[in-house]
Input
Amino acid sequence: MRIILQQSNLDLLREIEQLKASINERHKEQDLSIASPEFLPYYTAIISACDQIHQRVLKNLTHLKLEQDDILADILSETQELSKQFHFYNRHLLSPLMRYREPDRLCLRLLRWLHEHHPSTSTIPFGFSDGEFGIWPDPAIPIVYYMPTSAQFGLLYLPLFFHEFGHLLYASHKPELDDLVHDFQQEIATLLGPIAERDDAYSKTEAIKRNRIIETWYEWMQELFCDSVGFWIGGPSFVHAFSMYLRMRGRREFHVPEDELAYREHPVSWLRVRVLVDQMNQANFQQEAKALEQTWKTIAETLEIRDDYFGFFDEAFLPLIRQALDDMLTETAPWHFSDDDISLEKSITPQSTPVHVLNHAWAKFLREPAQYSEWQKQILAEIKW
Amino acid sequence: MSTQWLTLQSFQQGQDLLEAINFVSIHTKLQRNGMANTENASAILQNKEKIKSFLQVLSPLVQQSEKNPDKPLLGIDMRRRQLVDRFLEAKRNPRRFRSALFKKSIEDTIELLDSESEGNRQQLINCLADLRVLLEEHIDRDTVRILGEI
Output
């Protein structure tokens, strides 16, 4: 076993050194400090993570030299975990560095602005890569945001990063937010009524279903919180991006069969729209809320779909959801758009916030779609986030 | 929008914890074998604290689930709920999980982590070994989702 472990650790050591050399090579080619200063902390964090894994591998080799048989199982576990960690970095966290190109700066600058405007995220390094919109939101490791390639070259879908940023805020304030979600789930449990005391099969089935509903709301509240963060930061630009991105993705955005709802990580998109509409009404965006609601209703009617959440959502949940989301926003205090940011009368200037630009972008696209691409080209040349 | 955040958090927490378990286990075994201590005191304390914090969070969840198996666990994600279930399953399998962690209580293991007594070292080593098996099996699913299968 000692020889096997020695070989595996030496192999890992070689891989890490090889990888570090190619990262450094790439860094020299690009000169990130000049090409993309917002990306430099990510590079530094990745190199530092590789160094830490390297140190732990060296430690394994030192322990192996002690010739103590009873620690071989520990070294085996440690080597396996280090291999997984290294492959995780290799597979997911390296691509933002290796694929970096000049157009990435648009997204990176928006993300830098986003991170800098919150005390709990201002020092967290981040990168971004190709993929479905998403994030690896663990503040203990470098953050990676994902965005589909076509969306990276324009403004319209950038507001969806605000939702992803919500996941990072949740992770950064996890104990407090978990407590709030706990209280919310407790209220849902009260609303759904006590578990029947009868010891028959029907009561047991009902109790299992009730528990599934209550537990599923943990994940759903995190997603709804992220949608709220999206709206709180981006205002109408987030709502437009969210709705346009999801509404043509098929029937499942409107209806999911009962047996697939339990423990689903996202609520059905139509339900998310319902909650967003509520949030917009609370924030005095009645007209925009009505338009959003109507759009989704029209598509649902054409698909002949009725909103049915099989007990996983009830109208009576809405005030509780509203209260919990308000509390979660108060706890995390994300940056909030100002009147100027959503004003379309106010022109874009080099000092405009990203949110102001994004709201203009959506207004322009919806009003004059044929002229939008040309307009975007001009704006991208001017903005200095 | 991707749903990988849950998997990543579970994977990363598992990795951190396994690193701490391996650290404390190796240190305790070397100490038991009379080898010179090469680790600094703060690193030992830090890794023990990491395991203790995890067990302190796990303990009330396990107790609640044992007392009221029909009640839902609130304020925790799906993967953590599954870990609680896995822990309870392990408790019901004394042939495989034989340490004090499963035979006695989580609090006993926390005490073992604080103990400096030579007599408790073997018990602690056994508890850490069992906890490691539990966690490795638990994060296997996350690993497959994150790294895929060849």
User: Anything to note?
Assistant: The CA atoms of residues 277 and 293 of chain A lie 7 Å apart. Chain A touches chain B through 53 residues (CB under 8 Å). The longest strand of chain A covers residues 126-130.
